[in-house]
Amino acid sequence: MKPLRYLWALPWSLVGAALSVFFDRRFVVDGVLLAEGARWPGRFGWRYRAITFGHVVLAVDDLDPETMDHEMVHVRQYERWGLLFVPAYLIASLSALLRGDHHYRENRFEVAARHRHP
User: Fold this and answer.
1) How far apart are CA 43 and CA 109, in angstroms?
2) What are the boundaries of each domain within the chain?
3) Structural Rg of the chain based on CA atoms
């Protein structure tokens, strides 16, 4: 049921919604709040174009369809994992490091997002 997916991911969506006020534009796409346009993340060393929190995608620039598809996979992951997603993601990054792999590129959630679309 779709409402339960929103409820299960809600705590992280609230984090994303709170951060979205620091972006220039906000609109809803396929039930997901997309916030675009922010130069400030680069000042803190942020190297990624977007990050997802529940049903909120925060992007430093205008997202192309391929990147939005990638972020939508993360939305589905939040729907499956709920509150546990961020700890699971961090554990997957640590696991990759312990294997001698890259913490981001070889994170199992990122691998899935690169190879699968919702």
Assistant:
1) 26
2) 2-82
3) 14
